[in-house]
């Protein structure tokens, strides 16, 4: 391994998936990026709406969904099925040869079920980037095929697991960084990391370990943004060349977003 040129791993969040116009713009922009490239996507609100329609109760623990057996069935159908294939079909329509993947396909990404203590999240998994099948991903990229990963992984024993899409993107980026220089772009509906989410002019251009600690202490960065930035730093520590958090509409703008850097 190690013969491919710069690899881009691009993760899109649920809010982009829920907005058809934003999703179609993302697909057009992503198709214009040079290969090799990879998409990782979350699930959007469709799974929640489906659970409500089927009267499957949803339990949130510290802002995170508990995935019981019934919910796992729904998120698998929605994330690995409907959402994944919609994105794959849209990419084909824009000239990208794409293939949709869960972690179970070709045993490409395994996860381990999160321990039930101190909090039992149910069928939720954590990923070890060291055992991702980077060779299989390399074969796809070398054939100019775009892998499109959903956030449904497996444990190698026949059980599917629901994983955080940012964590999937970080782990995949770490794995393919063994193939070639890799850039991770975490795209969502904001311009990047904001000091004030209601102020579009409060974009933080660069986050380093030093100012990240300050931002957390001051409360400027909190809740869902913390695991996103934690995953970004983890990717950098494990060999990923660059990480940017940005608006999905700014995908083709190299100077946009918040750069996550280990250098002060």
List the helices and strands and how they pair.
Layout (H helix, E strand, L loop, with lengths): L6 E6 L1 H5 L1 H13 L4 E5 L4 H8 L6 E2 L2 E2 L3 H25 L4 E4 L9 E3 L11 E3 L6 H9 L3 E4 L2 E3 L5 E3 L2 H12 L5 E7 L17 E2 L1 H10 L6 H13 L4 E6 L10 E3 L4
Parallel strand pairs: 1-2, 1-11, 2-8, 5-8, 11-13, 12-14
Antiparallel strand pairs: 3-4, 6-7, 9-10, 13-14
Task: Give a verbal description of the structure.
The protein has an eight-stranded mixed β-sheet with strand order 5-8-2-1-11-13-14-12, with helices on both faces. Strands 3-4 form a two-stranded antiparallel ribbon. A two-stranded antiparallel ribbon has the order 6-7. With 264 residues, it is an alpha/beta fold. It is built from eight helices and 14 strands. Helix 3 (46-53) crosses helix 4 and helix 6 (165-176) packs parallel to helix 8. The model has no long low-confidence stretch (mean pLDDT 93). It has helices at 14-18, 20-32, 46-53, 69-93, 134-142, 165-176, 209-218, 225-237; strands at 7-12, 37-41, 60-61, 64-65, 98-101, 111-113, 125-127, 146-149, 152-154, 160-162, 182-188, 206-207, 242-247, 258-260. The protein has a single domain (7-260), classed as Acetylglutamate kinase-like (Carbamate kinase).
